[in-house]
Design a protein that fits this description.
The chain is of the alpha/beta class and 291 residues long. The protein folds into two domains: 72 residues, Alpha-Beta Plaits (2-Layer Sandwich); 217 residues, Rossmann fold. It has a six-stranded parallel β-sheet, with helices on both faces. The radius of gyration is 20 Å and the shape is elongated.
Length: 291
Amino acid sequence: MFTVVLLTSPETGGLEPSLVESLRNAWGGASAFWLAPDEAAEFVIPQMPANLWEVWESCQAMQVDLVVVPTDTRRKKMLLADMDSTMIQQECIDELADEAGVGARVKDITARAMNGELDFDGALRERVGLLKGLDAAVIDKVLAERITLMPGGKALLATMKANVGHAALVSGGFTAFTAKVAAELGFDENRANTLLIQEGLLTGEVGLPILGKQAKVDALEEITARLGIAEEDVIAVGDGANDLGMLTRAGLGVALHAKPSVAAQCNVRVNFGDLTALLYVQGYARVDFAA
């Protein structure tokens, strides 16, 4: 059995009951259940629809996300999350670059790297090199003034942890940011790269080894082994090319507001919902969300 989830932006709502019923009838689904009024609904179907992606395209035109997942294994025991443009709304290195006066150049490299056009390690070294000489105190300034959490993140973490879920933040960004974000949201652990600092200034180098695409896969393997759970028990979320390894390995990989080349390789794509979409996909209703 499979569960079909239809959802839209919590800010705008507007999920039409007529759309839910039309699709339920077309796919021979059971009675629909509303996970959140005006925002998310689901129903069970006997088999994966052959025309899933054609219908998905039609739903996208209506600003509705359509997800189909196996019913029996949809509830997960662990969250593995990217940070930049996933758990937060910014790319930290781009914000630092703005402060250093090299914002446009760094943002271009970031966009190309996240779209898979550039080698991640080389692109990270190049961008960090452009920050050489920046006062390390700027990190705290950026955290305080420029970094905002992605909507739905607190509900996602609180709800999964209330249901015996483990949460790991694994980023190709920097520990100075992941430590703060992890603490604020309630992650159990975090992994990221280290910006090297000497005499209060960024050296323009990053600590080795660089944590990129493989590091996220390694985290998936290592943490699940330590917890004694299967990779099938993990829901992973990310938006860039360096997230693809963990997104395709995890039991449920969610491309959240992802780059087109990344989303195209993922079966679960959320373009309009926020991070609470990861709860709806697992079968949590809004009334189940933890405070």
